[in-house]
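FAQ: What does a multi-protein file look like?

Like this. Sequence, then tokens, then the next protein.
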Amino acid sequence: MSADEHHDDHGNTVSAWFLTLSWIVAWTVAAVAIIGGGDLVTWTVVALVVSAATAAVAGVMKKAGLGRKEPRPVPPTREEWEASHTAAKKDKKVAA
């Protein structure tokens, strides 16, 4: 299994926004606690556990239909891009 196959891409969806915002909140709370005098290791572990839990929740949300509905878009290869770019230039020259 390649890294791309393993990557869980939520896309611009409810599950993605939930995951993003929950991680921001978890790490912000941990940072504020650490700055406020809390134990570095304790609050780092708390943030990591919360991050893992919210990632699991986002995965369940994705499976429940709140994630990407279409396959992940694949960018063109260099050869495909160059061919389309060359064709576009030719079309512009013909139109002019």
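And here is the next protein:
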Amino acid sequence: MKINGTPYRSVWVDEKDGWSIHIFDQTRLPFALDILTLVTPEEVAHAICTMQVRGAPLIGAVAAYGLALALRSSANDTTLEQTAAMLAATRPTAINLRWAIERMLTRLRPLAPAERAAAAYAEAGLICDEDAAQNEAIGRHGLELLRALAAGGRRVNILTHCNAGWIATVDWGTALAPIYMAHDEGLDVHVWVDETRPRNQGAALTAWELGSHGVPHTVIADNAGGHLMQHGQVDIVIVGTDRVTRSGDVANKIGTYLKALAARDNDVPFWVALPSTTIDWTVSDGIREIPIEERAASEVTHVGGRDDAGNIVRVQITPDGSRAANPAFDVTPARLVTGLITEKGCCPATQAGLLSLFPEFGQKEQGI
């Protein structure tokens, strides 16, 4: 995707030295576009933990490069395993992180130490290329849903929650990919952007992305979505996800479940866009089995923004002494999900639906 006409991916290797990693500091958006250079695996872990880099697919890709950085100085088995464990522990809910680390280990463990660093960079690069291709395919399949709604030239109002755009992936995004393609095709689309408290990824990131691409959008308070659905102002909900179980349960940013309930009550289609790397085939019951990250209370008690003088500031919004809880994700049961948009097509949010697109995983379970 482009920023001010210049094409970017969300993570890239420095062209000059060929090994350091660049990312956008997403905690500074939308008011500042800062590019960070990461040179150690510890810096990568810090960037993931502090959400300088976020979004399930992008976390996995950046972590893969973090492992490559570690192997530059020492590529023995101890460094490989310890670095992998450190990176895997940074965010517990997003399955792409664990998937990427396991893929890297599978590729690197059989190699001699002298071969590992170069192989790690190559494998991380493949992960990035595959993610970009998967998300472009998700966009094409989701575009068909928007084309159907736009029949006759009518405007399509889409509601999304959190940020599932190109800065949450390597490129294109998941939930936003169909929207970009619809806009570029000339369809009349408008996006309701949930602010997504407490970190405001919708207001800060999704709105910034859509605005940079010229997509009409309106930022709304998180609690406004149901009202808009009741009054016929939402035609479809499309969200991303950090983990989908084999039965179709969906873990996404806190507040997604409430949007799904409102959508069901108002007969609004509720779709979830994801690459297959986000499917956790080992988990069936999302509510009981998916670990939900509890983040710092300060994310709830304080908020960052820009004051009237143009200064980026952080202010407290709760009384002194008030406690705050901050679960970062919730789980939407499969029964509330209209369907899943993947790189191989759309399917019902069921095990049978997923296996119809990815039969190889059913064969693995049967030992075939």
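Q: Is there any per-entry metadata?
A: Some entries carry free-text notes. For the entry above: The domain at 2-131 is CATH 1.20.120.420 (Four Helix Bundle (Hemerythrin (Met), subunit A)).
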